[in-house]
Amino acid sequence: MILSAQIKNYYYGHLSALSPDKQFHFATRMAAWSDDDQAFRILHNLKNMIVDNDDLRITLRAIVNTPQSGRRNAHELRQPFFDTYPLLFGAHAALFRLRHLKSVYNTDARNEFFDVVQKSELDALYQALNSDHAALRVLSTFAVNFMYLYKKIALQENEPLNPQVFMDAARGYDARNATDMQLKIYLYTHCIIGDSNFYTQQVPAENLPIYTTMLQQLEQLITENFEAINLDNKLEFLVCARIISFKTSLFERIDAECQQSLSPEGDFVIDVLNTNIQENKTSFDKSEHRNVLYIMSATEYAPHSTVIH
After folding, report:
1. 290/306 Cα distance (integer angstroms)
2. What is the pLDDT of residues 271-280, one digit of tens each?
3. Which residues of 13-49 are buried (b: 16+ CB within 10 A; e: fewer)?
4. Which of 55, 69, 169, 204 has the fewest Cβ atoms nearer than 10 Å?
């Protein structure tokens, strides 16, 4: 059995060892990427975690007002920008809940969302981020996710978001700095992931030229700094290559690293061979993000709706 299939079976077989959030993350990806019946059963069982209140305003208000806790990648670098844009952290999380409600449980909570956070505030945040290249570079995934989710999910705009602003912002990264490399990879990959509505749609054809240029830049960056880039970053690049059918020789090289990176605790991949290993993400639960990306990277992109059957 090939390693990606072995890992997929292991995660399904040990699902109860994952936190509910990780179960949901794994199942949504497997439903979108592979249309797995087992994934849809998991999502059905987790419905009460997402649709957790008769009045979704209560849920969304609690999410928006939840203070930051724990540490994230580039934590100290990012905190000043979270201080500058205090609405971002809560709005980012609430937009994900809005997406889960609609894209998995077919529940439209946009009216409730705009009752909790004024559209004028969200528009102002969007415009401020759109013109703040330093914030885009450092916030990376948080800014990208907010902007794509706001346009595609909350506003349901048909006009695709133009990713050129992220290309422009990325010119300020230091290609020799490990943190900047990580943030650039996440910035570009989350543009593509966001435009696919998290693996459920083809990306708009008009954005393919920019996304191809992004992946060409990342291919060169990863090739030249292979040992300094963690597996999550490399695998997210491969998944995005699948999404836009970008041909890269890095598939074989990254797969070879995965083959040599099995955890001694089970059939899942951890960081062991690069110099930017994620030492705090070696458990089965905390490795889920890396491993679901590996599973997805092993097959062609064929997006499916994740609305439960």
Report:
1. 21
2. 988 877 777 7
3. eeeeebeeebbbebbbbbbbbbebeebbebbeebeee
4. 69
